[in-house]
């Protein structure tokens, strides 16, 4: 460094241009700027440790320097390039700077290096309220507490998952969102003193919860009550671990009452809902789903089937009716069934073409039109069974021929025999005969008879029965004769078996019956050209009028034909 002393009386004689030229022509080298370092060089120094503060001048090695130190704005009195602080305390904290002097020249002051002393005090972060589960929209306070540091003026530093503007106070009040979830820790600072960082406390923020409402019954019994339970569960959890809730109840959309235990007993019907609330200001959950509670009245409904048949067949018409006796109350009706098709909410359900989909148990209850929360109990169940198999009538005759002057009894029935309500429709020669209800008629005319059952309105018909042929017996009597009429016939002989019917000019068709091996053709006579033992047997016949196929004779008496396999010899 060059010093120009202006006190020289000749100075004023210098020309200004000369001075500037003189200065510019001189190479000036300014001493370097010192640097203050700390050993150890950690940013965190604990009280009681030994610290070395060193002043380093780069490029000034080998020179004889004298040092001046300041802590803050106060000179420390140290003159060496370093000094050792044993058992550092809070009072040793501060900003250190230095400069060096060689001869009469001083360096600049170094930049300030701050020594912060950390005391072995560990703050604690607490959460208020101290609920294990916090929900989006709630307000919580994080508090940094320094035990043993009471009365001191602390500034606080926070570390968090999300802090837009870190607070410097001991309390951090947040109206949380899910993005505020994470770990929070703090430490205290005071001048050049630091505490340790607290342990991290984890804040878990969940989406807004929804209250859950359960009822032990949905109908208040006569003279009784129903217990309703409201609860708040954390999302994706089966247990209600969140706490501090007060429960707010609503009936028909209006405030009902607030209780702390989440359970009430009610004896009034209505549409109930609830929600939870906690904290100050109160944080509310979403409302629960509504639960309808009915009040049971004493009127008792009854389900009837019309017609009341034990079994219904596919295609029949049936009415299921709900009847409620007592007073002039007007009702809305509700049905419950395990059939595939549910009835409409009316007092009767008319099934115009039943199928197995309608089979099931039916019960009903009524709801007063004037007070929708008042209902009857459920009726007893009535079972409707619909068979997909259309029934077929069955026809039986006590005989197949009307005797002379007599009759035949025909019986028509529908299986199963337990089915009821049938009316029977009769047909003779495929034309309607007469309908009767008891399924039995007596006939004296021959013909081809059949029947079917029908019931209901409109009439549902069964399938037709199998047809039964009934003959009418005439008085003409057939006779069987053998020609020639020998008592014994031998193998190889010729014999004629003839059916003769006397009386009038009637033309007949003939029918034979025999126990021989060979049956005769349906003609008036049977000519055996070479008899054998196969022709032996009893023969009888009857005639059927060609002009009226339902009129027949009785069977003739039997005639026995005996054919011997032994050939006869003349003696």
TrEMBL record:
Gene Ontology molecular function terms on file: transmembrane signaling receptor activity
Keyword vocabulary terms for this entry: Disulfide bond, Signal
GO CC annotations, alphabetized: external side of plasma membrane
SUPFAM superfamilies for this protein: Immunoglobulin (SSF48726)
Region (Disordered): 344-366, 527-547
Keyword Ubl conjugation among record annotations: no
Name the record gives this protein: Ig-like domain-containing protein
UniProt organism field: Oreochromis niloticus (Nile tilapia)
Source lineage: Eukaryota, Metazoa, Chordata, Craniata, Vertebrata
């Amino acid at each position: 460094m060059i010093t120009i002393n202006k006190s020289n009386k000749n100075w004023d004689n210098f020309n200004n241009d000369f001075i500037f030229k003189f200065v510019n022509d001189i190479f000036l080298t300014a001493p370097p700027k010192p640097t203050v370092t700390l050993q150890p060089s950690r940013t965190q120094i604990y009280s009681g440790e030994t610290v070395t503060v060193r002043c380093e001048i780069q490029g000034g090695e080998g020179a004889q320097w004298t040092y001046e130190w300041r802590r803050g704005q106060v000179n420390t009195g140290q003159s060496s390039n370093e000094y050792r602080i044993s058992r550092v305390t809070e009072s040793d904290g501060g900003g250190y700077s230095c400069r060096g002097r060689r001869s009469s020249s001083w360096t600049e002051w170094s930049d300030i290096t701050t020594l912060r002393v950390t005391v072995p005090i560990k703050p604690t972060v607490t959460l208020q309220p101290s609920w294990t589960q916090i929900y989006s929209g709630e307000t919580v306070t994080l508090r940094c507490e320094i035990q043993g540091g009471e009365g001191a003026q602390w500034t606080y530093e926070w570390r968090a998952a999300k802090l837009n503007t870190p607070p410097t106070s001991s309390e951090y009040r947040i109206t949380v969102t899910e993005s505020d979830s994470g770990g929070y820790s703090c430490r205290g600072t005071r001048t050049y003193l630091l505490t340790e960082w607290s342990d991290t406390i984890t804040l878990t923020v969940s989406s807004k919860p929804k209250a859950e409402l359960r009822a032990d019954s949905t109908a208040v019994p006569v003279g009784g009550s129903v217990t309703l339970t409201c609860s708040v569960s954390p999302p994706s959890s089966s247990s209600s671990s969140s706490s501090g809730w007060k429960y707010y109840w609503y009936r028909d959309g209006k405030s009902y009452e607030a209780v702390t235990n989440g359970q009430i007993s009610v004896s009034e019907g209505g549409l109930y809902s609830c929600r939870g609330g906690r904290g100050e200001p109160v944080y509310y959950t979403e409302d629960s789903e509504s639960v309808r509670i009915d009040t049971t009245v004493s009127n008792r409904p009854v389900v009837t089937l019309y017609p009341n048949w034990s079994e219904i067949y596919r295609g029949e018409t049936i009415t299921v009716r709900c009847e409620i006796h007592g007073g002039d109350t007007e009702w809305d009706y509700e049905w419950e069934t395990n059939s595939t098709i549910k009835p409409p909410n009316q007092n009767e359900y008319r099934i115009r073409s039943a199928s197995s989909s309608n089979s099931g148990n039916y019960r009903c209850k009524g709801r007063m039109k004037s007070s929708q929360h008042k209902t009857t109990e459920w009726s007893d169940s009535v079972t409707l069974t619909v068979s997909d198999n259309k029934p077929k009538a069955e026809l039986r005759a006590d005989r197949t021929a009307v005797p002379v002057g007599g009759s035949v009894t025909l019986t028509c029935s529908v299986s199963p025999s337990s089915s009821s309500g049938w009316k029977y429709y009769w047909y003779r020669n495929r034309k309607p005969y007469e309908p009767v209800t008891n399924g039995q008629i007596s006939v004296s005319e021959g013909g081809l008879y059949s029947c079917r059952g029908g019931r209901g309105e409109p009439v549902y018909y069964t399938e037709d029965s199998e047809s039964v042929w009934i003959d009418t017996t005439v008085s003409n009597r057939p006779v069987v004769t053998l020609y020639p009429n020998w008592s014994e016939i031998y193998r190889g002989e010729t014999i004629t078996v003839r059916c003769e019917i006397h009386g009038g000019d009637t033309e007949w068709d003939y029918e034979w019956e025999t126990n021989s091996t060979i049956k005769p053709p349906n003609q008036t006579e049977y000519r055996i050209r070479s008899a054998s033992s196969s022709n032996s047997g009893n023969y009888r016949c009857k005639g059927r009028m060609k002009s009226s196929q339902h009129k027949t004779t009785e069977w003739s008496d039997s005639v026995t034909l005996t054919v011997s396999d032994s050939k006869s010899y003349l003696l």
